[in-house]
Amino acid sequence: MTGHYVNYRKQVSGRELLPEQAFGLFGICSRRPRDLFAAVPPETVQAGVYLCRRGTDVIRIVVAAELPTAEHNALLHLFSAADDRVQYGAKHYELPTADVSTLVNKLFAAYRREGLTMPYTMDDFRKEVAREVLHKLTPEERLRGLSAQEIENYLRRLRRKPKDANANRRKPKR
Predict the structure, then answer these.
(1) More reliable by pLDDT, 126 or 91
(2) Of 96, 76, 95, the residue nearest 26 (C-alpha)
(3) How far is the C-alpha of 110 from the C-alpha of 30, rounded, in Å?
(4) Count of C-beta atoms within a 10 Å radius of residue 91
(5) Is the whole-model pTM more than 0.85?
(6) What are 77-91's pLDDT values in tens digits?
(7) With contact defined as beta carbons under 8 Å apart, do 118 and 109 qualify?
(8) What are the residue boundaries of the structural domains of the chain, listed by start?
(9) Is the dihedral of CA 61, 63, 66, 70 positive or negative?
(10) Which candidate, 78, 45, 74, 39, places its Cα nearest to that of 61?
(11) What is the C-alpha end-to-end distance of the chain, expressed in Å?
(12) Left (φ > 0), alpha (ψ -120 to 50) or beta: where does 67 sit?
C-alpha cells in the first residue's frame, strides 16, 4: 500500500512533491486483520477504526465487521462478512442513483431474495450475468473470441450420440 502511495504521490505532484498531509492511506477489510495487528499494534480511533503507523506513514484501517450498526455504515456492512451486519446493510443502504454498480444492485437483490447463507462467488456472478445476457446476443457475438478449433470441438460434442457418451464407461466388476 505504501509503495502505491509513494508512486501516486510522485505522479500527481509534478516537479515539487505535494506534502504528505495531502494524502491519506486507508485500508478497508471485512474482518480484523490479525497478522497485521500482530506485527503493527493498532491505535483505536473508534469502534472498527484503527491507526497503524509504519515509519512516517499513518494508515487508517476500517474493519467493516466491527463498525457500529448505523445508517452511515450501511454500505460497508454489506462487505463485513458478518451476517447480522450484512442484513443491516442490505436493509438500510439507499442507492444514490439508479446507475450504481450492477454488482451492488445484484448483491442487494440476492440478499433480499435468497438470504445470506447462499455461497455466491464472483465466478457465480459472472456466470449468472452471462446467462442473462447470452440470449440477447447474435450468433456472431456469441462466437466472437472463440477459435475455429474450439467451435469445431463444441460442434463435435453436440453431434455425438448418447451411446458414444456411454462407450467409455467401464462395466461394473462382479
Answers:
(1) 91
(2) 76
(3) 19
(4) 12
(5) no
(6) 888 888 888 888 888
(7) no
(8) 2-94, 97-165
(9) positive
(10) 45
(11) 63
(12) beta
